[in-house]
Please model this.
Amino acid sequence: MNHSSVYMTLIRALGFASQSKDVIDTANRIVSRMKRDWMAIGRRPSGICGAAFVMAARLHGFKCNIEDITKVVKIGQNTIKKVTVNNQ
Model:
């Protein structure tokens, strides 16, 4: 799956146009780190992308609500919470 299409959908829906490149680059790094740590195995790509986007947006100072991400990516809140807790 192409992660950039998920990120662009999230950026348009949440209005992160000002620093979109920085957030996408950070999210891609988080996803690659999740893959190296075997955290992406058995999870849907949309869940991984959603969790990485939440972490990247918060690192860049955006107020990112998990509920908004789950509506756009169409995954459950628990999925994002589990992935973000495991990654810290």
User: Anything to note?
Assistant: Helices lie at 3-14, 20-36, 45-59, 66-73, 77-87.
